[in-house]
TrEMBL record:
This is Major facilitator superfamily (MFS) profile domain-containing protein. InterPro entries: MFS_dom, MFS_sugar_transport-like, MFS_trans_sf. Pfam families: Sugar_tr. PANTHER family: EG:BACR7A4.13 PROTEIN-RELATED, SYNAPTIC VESICLE GLYCOPROTEIN 2. It is a multi-pass membrane protein. PROSITE patterns: MFS. The chain crosses the membrane at residues 47-71, 91-110, 115-133, 139-161, 173-195, 215-234, 306-330. It is found in: Membrane.
Amino acid sequence: MVNKEVEDNIVCPSVINENQKCTTPDPGNVADFETAIAQTKFGTFNLILLLVAIPSVFASQFETASLSYAFPAAQCDLNLSLEDRGLVNAIIYTGMISSCFIWGSLVDVFGRRRILIITHLIDSVFVIMAAFAPNLSVLLVAKFFGGFVINGPSMALTPYLSEFHGTQYRSRVPLTLGLLYSVGNIFLPLLAWALLPLNININVFEGFELHAWNIFLLICTLPALTSGLFFLIIPESPKYLMSKGNNENALEIFQQIFKLNTRQDPEQYPVKKLKDDKQIYQQKYTLKEAWIQISPLFSLRYANKLLLVCLLEFFLMMGYCYMTLLTHVLHF
């Protein structure tokens, strides 16, 4: 039986919340993920992550809404009718819908960081393609695949950022991302307001000129491009590495985060070994396995709830996107 006086003197220096057990490493310095991430504290590294998230969020916003602001200036160059403009706006979301289930699976199979790098860089290519589009057909192809690809960062960013935070701060990550999306909605029209009225005529080669709307779309490439480059220098989520059984690399990442956040030597990081948290992730992810995960959503048991959620989301997004997507119609 533990002596009462000794028991009262035991102090847990890293309690996450009142409902969670003490997260101090055990005497053998072996810890699970939650304990290990709590010991890295909150500091410089977490702030860097949030700064890197800004262009990533802006990339998603710009992909879906930038053309609505460019249409009034671009419609003459591309000979776009009102129906054509509506089709281009719709094709973006068609691409997003067609990939909505794919990226969630790929993020778990290939890792958050890899998906963030690849999708941002590929998206920047399609944004550039849209900026130089000579006709409607090229524009439709660029925006469809842009919408298809941009779902990747949207799926990967939230879990990626959340897995670098302990439970004390993790719930604030989605709130911060929501704030950044709102900032993006303010920044994009300001950028359009500053650039699109300009009289720009740059002769690139015979028969092709760059105008203000081309420059505007090229600038909209920067968030995706910079995000892809930024994520090259930021490590993979340690939780993902642990789920793959790569505890050694995960521990090194924890130590580097600890060093940045506390300004202490990595050797002073109290966790010396991570518990085996390997989960069953198959490298060859088949459509059958993906359907096994998704199929319960479409069972009769959840039909009413699924319908209600879908209707709520539909009307929410309709109200959210209505004015932005119809900006070109309000142009006089």
